[in-house]
Design goal:
The protein has 216 residues and is of the alpha/beta class. The protein has two domains: 135 residues, Rossmann fold, CATH 3.40.50; 67 residues. The chain has eight helices and six strands; from the N terminus they run E-H-H-H-H-E-H-E-H-H-E-H-E-E. It has a six-stranded parallel sheet. Helix 1 crosses helix 2, helix 1 crosses helix 4 and helix 4 packs parallel to helix 5. The chain is globular, with a radius of gyration of 18 Å.
């Protein structure tokens, strides 16, 4: 049986990743908003991609409510990425055009914020998606991000798919697919040339165009 749905990670798969320095500046602005004018490099790095424990530790060290710190961080990241979209610096890969020729429903499941995914769909010329999920800008959203399969499972359920494939560019994408027992395609873009995977994906591809050539 062929795949009855294609689910995609966003950054590094459909869209070029946001420049790291843009996100770092957004995090520094978030710290400033909550009264921390000189965050350490460790604190900034932690807030780039924390788990709940590391987020709470940073907040505790600064005598802040973690919910307040994270809300400021998320708002700053959403606004910074929206500006990158408007300026044309955050843009789709050329091979996303293949999505228009896939003969199955499609969805996005991203660790980026749900609002950011909505902004991408509004500002970029992408084929329509049947479902899309980013994480909530809350501590619960941190808990639910990949490698947890929470959002991936929701998307698959919404599509009503029985044999989907998840297309990603990271270890957590492969792990989320493995957690649900579905196939994974790893896209080895330029930024992943030396990237190592602890577990083998079902397929490794160099371009989304190869999705149309997968075994049926």
């Amino acid at each position: 049986m062929g795949y009855d749905a294609f689910v995609f990670d966003n950054d590094g798969v459909l869209m070029r990743p946001t420049d790291r320095e843009v996100l770092i500046e957004a995090i520094r602005a978030a710290f400033d908003e909550v009264g921390v004018t000189e965050p350490t490099s460790h604190e900034v790095e932690t807030l780039l991609g924390p788990d709940v424990d590391s987020l709470r530790a940073v907040a505790s060290d600064r005598d802040l409510e973690p919910e307040r710190l994270w809300a400021a961080r998320e708002r700053a990241a959403i606004e910074a990425q929206l500006e990158e979209l408007r300026a044309g610096r955050k843009r789709p890969y050329e091979d996303v055009s293949v999505l228009e020729r896939l003969e199955a429903p499609t969805a996005i499941v991203s660790n980026n914020q749900h609002e950011t995914i909505g902004n991408i769909l509004e500002h970029c010329s992408l084929a329509p998606f049947d479902a899309w999920y980013g994480r909530e800008p809350t501590i619960e959203g941190v808990e639910r991000k990949k490698p947890e399969p929470y959002y991936l499972e929701r998307a698959i359920d919404e599509l009503g798919a029985e044999n989907p494939i998840y297309v990603g560019d990271s270890r957590v994408d492969v792990a989320a697919a493995d957690a649900l027992g579905i196939d994974a395609a790893f896209v080895r873009r330029d930024h992943r040339r030396e990237y190592e995977l602890p577990t083998e994906p079902t397929y490794e591809i160099a371009s989304l165009a190869e999705l149309r050539e997968l075994p049926r």
